[in-house]
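Note on ligand handling. Small-molecule inputs were canonicalized before submission; formal charges were left as drawn, and no protonation-state enumeration was performed. Where a ligand contained multiple stereocentres, the stereochemistry in the source SMILES was retained. For magnesium ion, this procedure yielded the string shown in the input block below.
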Amino acid sequence: MDARDKPGHDGRNKLAPNMTDTLEASRPSPTAVPAPPLLAVRNIEVVYDDVILVLRGLSLDVPKGAIVALLGANGAGKSTTLKAISGLLKTEDGEVTRGEILFEGERINGIDPDKIVRRGIFQVMEGRRIVSDMTSLENLKLGAFTRRDREVDADLDMVFTYFPRLKERTGLAGYLSGGEQQMLAIGRALMARPKMILMDEPSMGLSPLLVKEVFAIIQTINRDLGVTILLVEQNARAALSVASHGYIMEQGKVVLDGTADELRDNEDVKEFYLGGAGDQRKSFKNLKSFKRRKRWL
Ligand SMILES: Nc1ncnc2c1ncn2[C@@H]1O[C@H](COP(=O)(O)OP(=O)(O)OP(=O)(O)O)[C@@H](O)[C@H]1O
Ligand SMILES: [Mg+2]
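Structure output:
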């Protein structure tokens, strides 16, 4: 039987054993206790303005050191998920009304956003949200607002080595190109020395070449600095090229998850998220098959 025909107990279709199982399988000692994920979102429900139910029992795990992709169409609830984790929901009259969010094993839902930054989670918002009437340098220093150590200048140098263009552009950040603004937003996150970065659609509005460049930097940051990344994207292809695991969400729930390779090979994912399965989609007579119902619904 196809794995997709056997939803798990939570109603979600699973392509792979869950991530902790995978890690456990590769562990040398059978007696070792499996490491808990760095971030665990457990069955959360989110409501805006006391009435609008947007997340309906969403769960996901992000292992330490991983890049995990969260994919889905417009309005699926991807940004809401990130805001629930970073605490920024509060600024939009949103609330986690059920379930819990655990970071390093501790519950963080309900905590103020600045305290969540201090714990090591930094969100790079959708649309970049840099301060346009400040310089790049001033924007980067803003990212270090929680820090009291003396290594801020050294970290500024580090950010400029990742993004040399930012050093050259000394004018106001509002005049930077879309790609440069995205790089500045990522650089600002790095200035907080986060354990984990939540990225909301870093590819948005960028040319294919710049998308490649930004995603290469995301991968480098993850590898060099060991920063764990939860990556929200509509560009599933770009996200799955750097992620080890992915979740697909629709209407406030995860409907499918698996390793990046498994998701890339999945027919539904190809059809609905990766821009068609090769030549078939180009042919009008195959429109019927293209329009068929998603198997996970
Ligand atoms: N502040 C808010 N108040 C009320 N409803 C909201 C608010 N923010 C989002 N929503 C609703 O929640 C749903 C999910 O929105 P969300 O922004 O999380 O989706 P998304 O997956 O990030 O979409 P996109 O790909 O377009 O960014 C949408 O129906 C949206 O209208
Ligand atoms: Mg969004």
